[in-house]
Amino acid sequence: MNFRSALLLVPAVLLAQPQLDLLLRGGQIIDGTGAAARAADIGIRGDRIVFLGDGSQAHARRVLDVHGLVVSPGFIDPHAHVTGDLSNPSANANEAYLYQGVTTVVTGNDGQGPLDSGATLDRWTKQGVGTNAALYIGQGTVRREVMGMSDAAPTEEQLARMKSLVARGVREGAIGMSTGLYYAPGSYAKTDEVIELARAAAAQGGIYDSHLRDEDSYTIGLLGAIREAIEIARQARIPVHISHIKALGSEVWGQSTEAIRMIRQARAEGLEITADQYPYEASGSSVTASLIPRWAEAGGNAKLLERIDDPSVRPRLIEEMQANLKRRGGADSLLIISGRDRSLIGKRLAAIAAERNESPIEAALEIVKNGGAGVASFNMSEPDIENFMKQDWVMTGSDGSEGHPRKYGTFPRKLRVYVYEKKIISLPYAIHSSSGLTAQALHLRDRGLLREGFYADVIAFDPATVADRSTYEHPNVLAAGMRFVIVNGKIAIDEGKYTGALAGRALRRQ
Ligand SMILES: [Zn+2]
After folding, report:
1. What pLDDT is recorded for position 1?
2. Is the pTM of this model over 0.90?
């Protein structure tokens, strides 16, 4: 073969430009579109993927041998609750997520995003972050800023103020507005108020992310809450993303089928409705959020404590809490996972009540009076989890929170349990729902796929060992199986170990 014909076999991109920074050679590529695996090499230069194909002629500063590994886009978590971690110099590496193969997180969900989107994004850029990170402006935060913990409807002036705060947040770079309509004070906003704020977010190009008003049978019910989310999409003309979709509690088990039907119908109508999900049977909540009715929280914590001790209110409070405890499956379904009183961690509410010789509701009220506690709430049925997981508009999201294993385990767990053990979904589908689908739904440009020109957020994992290691007993154990995690072209996990790189970027709405 003469020199000229040999050249023709070398892709033009490799000749026209200087050598590659990184070449991943010999892996099985799963590109994030949902397409099947294929053998290909990946070339990276700077922060971009510049080559996909046969790289045997390519020169690179470093070659990573990824034979036997799956190479895919870095995972994207649409719901991570890491606003505090990312701003904290001792936690900003975001290792809990890097070890899962997550290269981009979104935070500020459930209505809790900070008021100062721009300053928060600037701080991450300045201090450095281990993963890319985007955020939401929080409707709960905005309402608290303008109206405190009041459960009243806003005056025209208050509404205008809230709208301008939401608009400012999105203008400064938030990807949209999040709501936590189940929690106080977000729950005090009626649908019309939420639509007004969603319009303000939509006008700036933002999307809408919601912890639904009810995932159970507390108020309007799971299906009523899905109807409300669809109505917000329709009225505010905004893409709606439903956080951690689930049927929470035995009273609504099986309603996944009807919920899916409603969402499919709305999508057929042209509305952009998507959702995320974590693959666990327990949700993460608090004693207060799961058992105390919202009216008792109106006015804030001091008011709540007054009501607990007010003999004219306490009987009604206890009666409603009993109903809520029943919804949650009883006192054995609530496992304390965090809180001021560390001696309670790892115990079920039933056991705490038995030890103290009091009713579970009285024990719960004592816990609330002493500063509250986080719980893992065992309330989901496996058929509903699998039903939601199979929908092509449902992506992976951790909803990571202290004390729940999902913060360290969500993405590898979906692979281990639902791809490899139960075979509910295929590997290309699981990867698509953890990368390409998410980038598309959240409008994250040039991320989520292995494609020339896209940012080099790339992972290589061992399909034989990829697994979650975190449990309810030991929630903070790093996941296993990620051999290489590359963020914007820089290696963050090298041969299974964190390198110290802070290669993430603060992602602003585009
Ligand atoms: Zn939530």
Report:
1. 42
2. yes
